Amino acid sequence: MSTAGKVIKCKAAVVWEPKKPISIVEIEVAPPKAHEVRVKILATGICRTDDHILSGSIKANFPVIPGHEATGIVESVGEGVTNLKPGDKVIPLFLPQCGECTVCKNPEGNLCEKNDLGVPRGVMYDGTSRFTYKGKPVHNFFSTSTFTEYTVLHEDCVVKVDAAAPPEKVCLIGCGFSTGYGAAIKSAKVQPGSTCAVFGLGGVGLSAVMGCKSAGASEIIGIDINKDKFPLAKQLGATQCISPLDFKKPINEVLFDMTNGRGVDYSFEVIGRTDTMIAALASCNMNYGISVVVGAPPSAAEMTFSPALIFTGRTWKGCVFGGLKSKDAVPQLVSDFMAKKFCLDPLITHILPFDKINEGFELLRKGKSIRAILVFGDEQHTRK
Ligand code: COD
Ligand code: ZN
């Protein structure tokens, strides 16, 4: 029986207020309005940013349904939607690509003006939510909200991908993988034969390592205080791995020693700390080095650094979603994955049923997972 045009009752994970566990309850999901689509979620990853909602360290409007890294199937479409139809496999886009704003029209821009990052509205473009709990509105998050069996997305915030793509893997292309990989290939534009340093070897840092490798870097130095991260980093392309804890001198000086006093061509900060952002900047060549900030700093953080670091020519930049235009990049990355140009398996340490969402967050907080993926429906099993 078709559900199109009807309210769907389904399970969703709601955060009622900061610092409280997420709870799974039955919500109502209204049909999509004009230029919106309703999507059945198949698999969704738990990203550090979702945990920031639970801990209250980033702003959100409560109650809220987090989750922004997923794969789903279109259930129904609203009026005026022409490029998607029921049954299409899709990836929600936490960074929209409206195609019309100044940023979308700039070839180098990717932070579409319609985005709901920063100070979030937590509602659809028309100012209302499609989610209710016992008739009371529940906010959405990052224009996506994927910790639910069904969500509603504006057509700017969703894209069709290869129907054969495995949902529990390609969901990573919706956030973590693209953030790191894009930082290397798009934001830094790593060149063949270059030297790179990646600070932080979590899932996003490892994706940056993969991006450096696929761009043809000849030397990729992984840096992490946790040496357990080194074997996987080497498997994915790091040529050497070092821990700052093993050296008396600052890590930027160590990296200069390792590169004949020149510094690396590209460095990436994928930890989210201000001290390592400066260390990464100081590690790249004083003239043509490019350093990319990938990790989000704590919201109140400020930093002090010597202007001499950039005066000599270094470029210091940041990027969201790897600097990639979401709607253009995501289907292409899924095709590249299907063509085996990169792998996602090493980033997926756990697959859990949706009901075990709190366990998934615990694994993340204890540093035991790289990515835990929640699956809906029958394909529920635990790996590793
Ligand atoms: N020196 C070296 N390594 C360190 C240090 C240090 N001082 N401190 C921690 N580390 C290592 C840890 O051991 C760990 O291996 C790694 O750094 C961090 O990895 P994870 O697993 O905690 O995190 P990731 O890879 O999943 O994500 C890291 C980000 C910093 C990228 C993420 O938290 C973030 O800030 N994302 C926001 C960026 C963004 O684009 N957001 C939009 C949507 S999410
Ligand atoms: Zn994320």
UniProtKB/TrEMBL annotation:
GO terms under biological process: retinoic acid metabolic process; retinol metabolic process
Subcellular location: Cytoplasm
Domain Enoyl reductase (ER) as annotated: residue spans: 23-374
The protein's name: alcohol dehydrogenase
Listed GO CC annotations: cytosol
MF annotations from Gene Ontology: all-trans-retinol dehydrogenase (NAD+) activity; zinc ion binding
Family: Belongs to the zinc-containing alcohol dehydrogenase family.
This protein's record includes keyword Lipid biosynthesis: no
Chief localization: cytoplasm
Keywords: Acetylation, Cytoplasm, Metal-binding, NAD, Oxidoreductase, Zinc
Gene designation: LOC110083977
Pfam families, sorted: ADH_N (PF08240), ADH_zinc_N (PF00107)
EC numbers: 1.1.1.1
Catalytic reaction list: a primary alcohol + NAD(+) = an aldehyde + NADH + H(+)
Cofactor(s) recorded in Swiss-Prot or TrEMBL: Zn(2+)
